[in-house]
């Protein structure tokens, strides 16, 4: 089972609603590691890089307006099958439809203001991590708790 790195963005609504700590806690409680973290303000240029596949779609201006409306927290998250684990933890895009127990299901009510973005695959994770982090800003590490998170053959 491969250890993966994924990108997660806590969006302006998560920061404004003071949910950063709770969301970070969910990832850490699951056993995932935060190997990079920074707070920043997404610019229009950064939004276009991040959402390159959506720039020419009719909804993009509203997306850009939202993502640039306040500070965000960018995360690099690491763990066994981190990409699929994180996606499952986030829940459906629309918080009204997301199952209880997921971040969006427990904390969200909106399709657009859905608190978090998580990479949807290895290529997206690599691309998004490179947009938000320099290689030297990502810090891999181990702790004495690692053997209690996953069995050796699961890493």
Describe this structure in words.
The protein has 155 residues and is α+β, with helices and mostly antiparallel strands. It has a single domain (3-137), classed as 2-Layer Sandwich (Alpha-Beta Plaits). It is built from seven helices and four strands. The chain has a four-stranded antiparallel beta sheet, with helices on both faces. The longest helix has 11 residues, at 20-30. The chain is globular. The mean pLDDT is 95.
Strand portion: 15-25%
Radius of gyration: 15 Å
Strand order of the biggest β-sheet: 2-3-1-4
SS content category: alpha+beta
Helix and strand run = EHHEHHEHHEH
What name does CATH use for the topology?
Answer: Alpha-Beta Plaits
Specify the oligomeric state: single chain
Q: Please mark out the parts with pLDDT under 50 across 5 or more consecutive residues, or reply none.
A: none
Number of separate structural domains? 1
What's the CATH class label?
A: Alpha Beta
What's the helix and strand layout?
Blueprint: E1 3-10, H1 12-16, H2 20-30, E2 33-41, H3 44-50, H4 60-67, E3 71-80, H5 82-90, H6 103-107, E4 116-118, H7 122-132
Antiparallel strand pairs: 1-3, 1-4, 2-3
